[in-house]
């Protein structure tokens, strides 16, 4: 069964169309990247799938059930969403942040269960948060903060995880670190869908890519097949060379200069 | 490392139900309760005729003299209980609106809700002389101010400063209309209303405090229900929704509660500045955590208003000065401090 199925999705803000007829489905246990130029509708697509924006036309099924049929809390047990620039509440510790990930599974009279403890410990270990556990979350550096957020998302223990540009604000060392962590999540048979700008990172870490162009799916498939000179030139209005990385042959995109 | 229980909490287990109590939060709640009780007794003992705190306790326990009973029950208790209830309400309302707008400067006294409430009370008190104090008019005026605010500024969570500046403008407007309404009346007719607009508790009666207390008590279950989603709203709409909070519904609930509670708090002793802003700040400072619960902010509000009221009575003896003047002075310093601190942060 597919985790997520999207059929003929259309969306616009105030008459201005953003997405046209987007359809795809996501297999279980894969890391899938959404790529495309600025304004191509990547973030809008992710927000729609996360239930953060109301659907206008088309269908989205989560685990075979219509997105609209879930209550906010029930949806939060199916999928976890991390926005591009999440707001960190002041004064809270990393431990508390990760524990908040359990909120969708809790109620007023069920504020802490053995399962909560297990999932929080799991998230902490996968994201290697022990050394930061009692730190104030708003004082962490960019990479550490991103790991803490991913800890919260993991504690939510959902089959589907949606991340909006989880690596954009990080240097290449931290990008690698965060992408390795994300890669690790999929080994637990969870599906991760990320919006990502860096095509090289996308090609190296993602199993499959969805390339968006002005709200339409321009290409879809295994990452190394999607990243072609023709597509990149067209999507980004550039002239690039694509080289093979020395170690594993992953595509490396090098834009040419435009001047004469 | 042991995570079987989150650090710093007590876990209560009753059958299948599990409830977590944050240790520091509850210790501070207890501390503020004790402080409030002490201030309460102290406040009753202060006045033109001296009474010791021991005599106050004896009188409250039914062991006092006739004279003391009259002094306590007829003269001092109405004022002191009015101060407590108004302080609780202001602390609650401040906590709710600050969280909704995600800005410490966004409180009902800054954004015009209190001014709306007091305008309604002034108009009813002056033009429709009803005999009793029209406390029940306050939510109408507050709702009017809030509607104006939200029509002019649609997304309070994302435009904190705009929200506050529009709020200050609305607040000034309501204030001016209220002053205009008062200026049309002869001075003799005006005395108690004018003092009330400066935040004065000397003439508070049980007829006002009692129904307001009952309404606030009835709202307590709703407050308890909203406390958890309120904590999550501090992470912004997107994360709150991701964690299962029905954001529009909760925001509407918070807004409705905040307006009602703020206006009822105003109705007792008039619009008092500073308590609604400072109480949640004190609460989060006490818990070393910005996620301080509503009830702690409420207790802090009561302690602060009571403290200001005692201070103003001791300093001004034997004259009567409105409590609101003391809170205005303290609030002015707090506001300056916060603005300067924020400026240093952004530098």
From TrEMBL, chain A:
Keywords: ATP-binding, Cell membrane, Ion transport, Iron, Iron transport, Membrane, Nucleotide-binding, Transport
Domain ABC transporter: 4-239
UniProt xrefs under PROSITE patterns: ABC_TRANSPORTER_1, ABC_TRANSPORTER_2
Membrane topology, record value: Peripheral membrane protein
InterPro entries (alphabetical): AAA+_ATPase, ABC_transporter-like_ATP-bd, ABC_transporter-like_CS, P-loop_NTPase, Siderophore_ABC-ATPase
Gene Ontology CC: plasma membrane
Homology family: Belongs to the ABC transporter superfamily.
GO terms for MF: ATP binding; ATP hydrolysis activity
Subcellular location: Cell membrane
Protein name: ABC transporter ATP-binding protein
Organism: Halopseudomonas bauzanensis
Annotated Pfam families: ABC_tran (PF00005)
Gene Ontology biological process terms, A to Z: iron ion transport
């Amino acid at each position: 069964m597919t985790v997520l199925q999207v059929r003929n999705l259309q969306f616009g803000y105030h008459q201005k169309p953003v997405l046209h007829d987007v359809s795809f489905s996501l297999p279980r246990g894969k890391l899938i990247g959404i790529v495309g130029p600025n304004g191509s509708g990547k973030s809008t697509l992710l927000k729609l799938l996360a239930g953060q924006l109301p659907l206008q036309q088309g269908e989205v099924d989560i685990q075979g059930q219509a997105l609209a049929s879930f209550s906010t809390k029930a949806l939060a047990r199916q999928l976890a969403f991390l926005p591009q620039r999440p707001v960190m509440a002041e004064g809270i510790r990393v431990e508390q942040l990760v524990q908040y990930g359990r909120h969708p599974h809790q109620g007023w009279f069920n504020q802490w269960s053995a399962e909560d403890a297990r999932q929080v410990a799991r998230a902490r270990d996968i994201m290697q948060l022990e050394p930061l556990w009692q730190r104030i979350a708003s004082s962490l550096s960019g990479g550490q903060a991103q790991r803490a957020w991913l800890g919260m998302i993991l504690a939510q223990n959902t089959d589907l995880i949606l991340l909006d540009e989880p690596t954009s604000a990080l240097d290449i060392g931290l990008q690698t670190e965060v992408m390795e962590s994300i890669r690790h999540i999929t080994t637990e048979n969870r599906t991760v869908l990320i919006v990502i700008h860096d095509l090289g990172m996308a090609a190296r870490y993602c199993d499959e890519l969805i390339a968006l162009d002005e709200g339409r799916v321009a290409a879809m498939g295994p990452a190394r097949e999607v990243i072609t000179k023709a597509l990149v030139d067209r999507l980004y209005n550039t002239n690039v060379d694509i080289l093979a990385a020395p170690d594993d042959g992953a595509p490396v995109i090098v834009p040419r200069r435009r001047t004469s | 490392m042991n995570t079987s229980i989150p650090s710093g909490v007590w876990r209560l287990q009753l059958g299948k139900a599990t409830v977590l109590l944050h240790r520091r939060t509850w210790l501070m709640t207890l501390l503020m309760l004790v402080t409030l009780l002490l201030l309460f007794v102290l406040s009753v003992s202060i006045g033109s005729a001296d009474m010791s705190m021991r005599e106050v306790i004896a009188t409250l326990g039914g062991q006092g003299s006739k004279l003391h009973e009259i002094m306590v029950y007829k003269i001092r208790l109405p004022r002191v209980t009015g101060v407590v209830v108004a302080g609780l309400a202001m602390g609650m309302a401040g906590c709710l609106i600050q969280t909704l707008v995600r800005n410490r400067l966004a409180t009902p006294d800054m954004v015009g809700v209190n001014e709306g409430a007091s305008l309604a009370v002034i108009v009813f008190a002056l033009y429709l002389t009803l005999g009793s104090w029209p406390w029940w008019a306050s939510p109408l005026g507050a709702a009017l101010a809030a509607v104006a605010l939200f029509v002019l500024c649609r997304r309070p969570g994302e435009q904190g400063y705009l929200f506050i500046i529009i709020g200050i403008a609305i607040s000034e407007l309501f204030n001016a209309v209220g002053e205009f309404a008062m200026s049309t009346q002869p001075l003799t007719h005006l005395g108690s209303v004018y003092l009330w607009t400066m935040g004065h508790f000397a003439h508070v009666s049980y007829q006002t405090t009692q129904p307001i207390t009952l309404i606030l008590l009835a709202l307590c279950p709703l407050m308890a229900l909203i406390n958890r989603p309120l904590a999550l709203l501090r992470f912004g709409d997107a994360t709150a929704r991701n964690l299962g909070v029905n954001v529009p519904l909760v925001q509407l609930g918070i807004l409705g509660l905040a307006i009602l509670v703020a206006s009822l708090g105003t109705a007792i002793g008039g619009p008092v500045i500073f308590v609604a802003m400072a109480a949640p700040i004190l609460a989060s400072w006490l818990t070393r955590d910005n996620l301080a619960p509503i009830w702690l902010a409420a207790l802090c509000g009561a302690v602060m208003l009571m403290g200001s009221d005692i201070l103003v009575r001791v300093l001004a003896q034997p004259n009567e000065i409105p409590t609101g003047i003391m809170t205005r002075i303290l609030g002015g310093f707090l506001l300056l401090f916060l603005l300067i601190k924020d400026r240093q942060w952004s530098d």
